[in-house]
Design brief:
5 domains, 584 residues, Elongation Factor Tu (Ef-tu), domain 3, six-stranded antiparallel sheet, 27% strand, 12 helices
Length: 584
Amino acid sequence: MKKYSIYTALLAAGLLVGWMLFGGTKSEEKEHDHKEQEARNQKWTCSMHPQIVQPEAGDCPICGMDLIPAEVAAEGLAADQFKLTKNAIALANIQTSIVGNGASTNNTVKLSGKIVENEEANVVQVSYFSGRIEQLNISSTGEKIQKGQLLATIYSPELYAAQQELITAASLKESQAKLYQAVRNKLKLWKLSESQINQIEKTGKVKENFPVYATVSGTVTEKLVEQGDYLKQGQPLLKIANLSSVWANFDVYENQINLFKKGQEVSVIANSDPNKKYKATVDFIDPTLDAKTRTVKLRVVLKNTNNRFKPGMFVEGYIKVIAAKKQPIVIPASAVLWTGKRSVVYLKANTNEPIFQMKEVLLGNRLGDQYEVTEGLFTGNEIVTNGTFTVDAAAQLQGKKSMMNKSGGKVMTGHEGHIGMTKKADEIKMNIDRVSVDSKFQKQLKEVFDQYIVLKDALIKEDAKTATVASSMMLKKVTLIDMKLLKGEAHTTWMQLSKELKKHTIAFNSTTEIKKQRNHFKPLSSSLIMIIEKFGINQKVYSQFCPMADSNTGGYWLSLEDKVVNPYFGNAMLTCGEVTKTIK
């Protein structure tokens, strides 16, 4: 037994020595391999320029500072995902909602339209004989006239001779009955009444100036002659509209045409009295499509009691449409961004974390303030429904896929990164489609940009009062832009981008505190950058960026010079930043 105890002790000692010699080595090897894997996955960035991401330690290719380990590697984000801070989300009032299946809660489609004259009730008052207008009794358009009212008196040599023929034929009517009747009929064709003809025949006197009476009642919408003008037979004198009924013409977009049919009930609301609805039905849908606006006209006939509807007045029409058997996904219109033919939304990729990702979608019909989505989303997806432009700007800032940059940025490494960041700014190109617009529109947009420059310079000087005044002027210039200069895609894009610009300009204008103004300056600048890139202003503009603005989340601005003068910090950090792009 003693011998076996000794053997057991020796065996245990041997196992212990073996584990110490070899087991520890394997554990150390595993730990070493793990550290090597972490090192390979580690990315390095610059504290001053977070857009620089490199696979190994070194110097920043922009400022030369030592690179530091990038924390984003630990967040486990996909290539197209990005994260926003809670502060940024609160500041921009970014809101999300869950996508649900089924029809809109309101299947009523809103249409915009205009009141026009009822063409079926319009009349052109003409002259039935040639001559010269001796007296015109209508002084201006808008006058109401009644049937039989004296409109003008005309001197007509032809009518003068015809009256003499009548007097002569009247004395021969017993022997020349056919001639007498022919002369009377000629006067009737010139719209002389039986009583007028009988009076000429009875008195035997010829009238030099002959009266012209209104053949209908209505309102004069256009004067086509003036007193003293010479007229030809059949020449128009006045355009007269009977406004007892009017038309409301609504624009229906190409993808909405199949939602409407003749006889559908329409609720019409005039901008002059938004609290009252008028019921009518669809009377006509134009069979031809306007190639410029990609719309068709939908017509509604309205009774115009008390002359409440006036031609040229803007109205809104609300029509309930028949829901499809299989209901598509429906999302708020505020969630959608457009660029050319692309429509995008932003998904919240993680329910518990502010992580977002761009998603292209295919839209169907617009139902009120919502869109049908035929492709790209599923029930249960969480999407951004408010602050979408701010999220898009953050995506661009972090080099991710965005509305204007569908391919996203890429991680620059080593020599490639250094070369890429030292290129001249005007050689850097983004994947953005410029929309062709009228030079007059660009000139008006330039006036908006000029006020922005005044605002930006005021922030540099920390002059809050001047910045507030400039924001007011900027907002005024935006509202004065002539929408008629834009057609099709340009019109749609401007409506969307300008809405966001107005929102941020109003927010900027609502405060006189320089710190709050700078908070609003960031999304305002992002909105204007998108607009300038999309439409242009026939002037070279520099897009500049400071990585330390807005609590190190970064901020862009526009400048007329390539020299960096930072508006986010005033005198504290005037030269912090860089030119990221030249917009030609």
